[in-house]
Amino acid sequence: MKHLQQGFTLIELMIVVAIIGILAAVAIPSYQDYTARAQVTEGMSLTSQFKTPLAEYFADKGPYDGAGFSFANLGGTLTGKYVQTVAVNGAPVGGTIEVMATFKTAGVSAQITGDTFSIETQDGGKTWACGNLVSTVPATSVGSKLMPGACK
After folding, report:
1. What domains sit in the chain, N to C, each tagged with a CATH number?
2. Among the four 62, 103, 105, 151, which has the fewest Cβ within 10 Å?
């Protein structure tokens, strides 16, 4: 009578463990980038909610630096799960304004801890630039590989 082998040999098990280790080494950094990109998206959505109100304000009342302009009066959400605050960067001048989201220092990906994401308009809200396309200094400090495609 023949004795049939049952189970796996040690070599076969070592090969499977090595393959899993290689896959994990490739997948974990990709997952961390994916997580950071999702968190940057929150910053983009929190800043972008002000595009329409700012464009309407400029069309109705003129320059952002005029009497009666207050970013706080525009409403909207100024914090999020990953974003510490959303505010105007510097003093707005004429039709130029930059809205900046600052990420928290705890509970976010280490790749974006304390970084900023910005959007800006220089023509009263007709066109907007975001991320690395913002010309105001300091602009966005989030790395380009984590930016949404429209902001690279």
Report:
1. 10-151 (3.30.700.10)
2. 105
